[in-house]
User: Fold this.
Amino acid sequence: MIEVTCAIIRNNNNEILIVQRGEKSDHPYKWEFPGGKTMLGESYEDCIVREIREELSVDITICFPLEPVEYNYGFKQIKLIPFVCNMPDKRLVLNEHKSYRWVKPDDLSGTDFSEADIPVAEQYLKTLRNHNK
Assistant:
């Protein structure tokens, strides 16, 4: 089981950052929440901050965690540990991904996500709905 963190990054317009994987990745052209594998002895929180700096050259503020998601791709099994984060509006540098988009929360449902990211998006939307009740 590979432990991987991901960030649901919100900007000042309450949009969510999604990034697209390249053609040579395990999941070509699929969209995902940015993040990456934990290093030995690293906390999940430290991992997501480090990964976002490495992948996007920006700093984030962790707001709260969501429930981890386990997914078996057949060739690898991951435990995806999501964090809802804020980022001030700032220019991103794509160091690993093909593209990025800022989307409204309602647009997450129609996104062609990597399979493990789908339940993370659903969980985030459910959290938003419960918060707005």
In short: Helices lie at 44-56, 117-131. The longest strand covers residues 77-86. The mean pLDDT is 92.
